[in-house]
Write a structure and sequence with these properties.
Elements: E1 10-11, E2 36-43, E3 46-47, E4 51-54, H1 65-69, E5 72-74, E6 77-81, E7 87-90, H2 92-105, H3 113-126, E8 137-147, E9 160-170, E10 177-181, H4 199-214, E11 219-223, E12 230-233, E13 238-243, E14 246-249, H5 260-271, E15 276-278, E16 281-282, H6 283-292, E17 295-302, E18 306-315, E19 318-321, H7 329-341, E20 352-355
Parallel strand pairs: 1-4, 10-11, 10-18, 14-15
Antiparallel strand pairs: 2-3, 2-4, 2-9, 5-8, 6-7, 6-8, 7-20, 8-9, 11-12, 12-16, 13-14, 13-17, 17-18, 18-19
The structure holds pyridoxal-5'-phosphate.
Length: 356
């Protein structure tokens, strides 16, 4: 796509904002959308004119290949506002890079960075009132791409749509969660698509996660498909274990998503001299650490919940409770991240991206 000629972003504004219909104090995550959306179609081998239009339903051929073969990828990121009304994104170029990594794995075209950044920042400016100040408030931004070619042969589509929609959010999973270490089902396999934010990865988790939820566990910690002995990640979060004062997390692989929160947490931990070991973590060492009291914390890290402390896990029919710890790394790292995201502290790694 390097020889693509860029066409100018076309903008159609909504006649009247819907913002007054939204109760920002009682937000049901992901159900309300802002006034505008961005889209751009890939047709005849080229990205067409990108557009921002009022958020609205769209028409799609029943034969659109995304519906049959799951050629669909997405991203998740957030916009924040400080008390002076300045809006920020967090490492958005990493989301751009990652959606193209996901797209490549699903035989989809790359989306050009110029279109992505311009569409994203223009949309943020147009819907800026939807980003509420205050730590915990944010605007969840969902870029995604899917196959729209009306043809049901099992082959890659020739036409795609790239979109960005936005939904106001409060921090969710406010209380600690209980998790199940997977012993039967798997999220991803060697050589598979686990590292991609491919739509089907999430569909495949709903059934086993539903079974876990019936037993009182909000999430599953996925283990490697081959042996179920290595702890990998949660469904939408990477996972950290604190044993004594050291943080452990699995290395990125073709089975594990390269989370932006994960790599930010690793950097912040290193900045405050917390030892971090990025290596394979076994179920048996964590059970042993829980038994002998050296397991101090487990937490998930991902854009949606930022950091989710975990209070218990089950494996092999046994439940292990993790007592609250003083000096929680999870709470400290969460505060550091939120402070950077909301422009309340110095941003020494250049992660904040001001929308202006
Ligand atoms: C999105 C996601 C994460 C978290 O990534 P962030 O960039 O931190 O939001 C972790 N694991 C999976 C499987 C994911 O889909």
């Amino acid at each position: 796509m390097t020889d693509q000629k860029y066409s100018e972003l076309a903008i159609e504004k909504i006649a009247k904002t819907k913002i007054n219909d939204v109760d920002f104090d009682n937000i049901n995550f992901g159900r309300k959308f802002t006034d505008h959306m961005f889209y751009c179609d890939f047709i005849d081998g080229a990205w067409q004119q990108p557009k921002i239009v009022p958020y609205q339903p769209m028409t799609l051929e029943p034969s659109a290949r995304a519906l049959h073969y799951g050629q669909a990828v997405f991203e998740g990121m957030k916009a924040y506002k400080d008390d002076n009304g300045n809006a920020f994104l967090f490492r958005p170029e990493d989301n751009h890079r990652r959606i193209n990594i996901s797209a490549a794995r699903l035989a989809m075209p790359e989306f050009p960075k110029e279109y992505f950044m311009e569409g994203l920042t223009t949309l943020m400016k147009m819907d800026k009132d939807w980003i509420k100040p205050g730590v915990g408030n944010s605007l969840y931004v969902r870029p995604f791409m899917f196959a729209i070619d009306p043809a049901i042969a099992a082959a890659p589509s020739e036409a795609y749509r790239f979109m960005i929609i936005c939904s106001p959010a409060k921090a969710y999973y406010t209380s600690k969660i209980r998790v199940l270490f997977s012993e039967k089902y798997s999220r991803s396999a060697d050589g598979g698509v686990g590292y991609a934010k491919a739509a089907g990865n999430y569909a495949a988790q709903f059934y086993p996660t539903g079974l876990a939820q019936k037993r009182g566990y909000q999430q599953i910690i996925w283990t490697d498909a081959k042996t179920h002995e290595f702890l990998e990640e949660a469904g939408t979060m990477n996972i950290f274990f604190r044993v004594n004062d050291t943080l452990l997390t699995a290395p990125i692989s073709d089975r594990i998503l390269d989370g932006i929160t994960r790599k930010s947490v690793i950097q912040l931990a290193e900045d405050s001299n917390i030892p971090v070991e990025v290596r394979r973590v076994t179920v048996s060492e964590i059970k042993e650490a829980a038994t002998n009291g050296s397991l101090k914390e487990i937490f998930g890290a991902g854009t949606a919940a930022v950091i989710s402390p975990i209070s218990a896990f089950e494996h092999g029919g046994e439940v292990f409770e993790i007592p609250d710890t003083e000096n929680s790394y999870a709470l400290r790292l969460k505060k550091q991240l939120l402070d950077i995201q909301h422009n309340l502290s110095e941003d020494k790694h250049g992660w904040r991206y001001e929308v202006k």
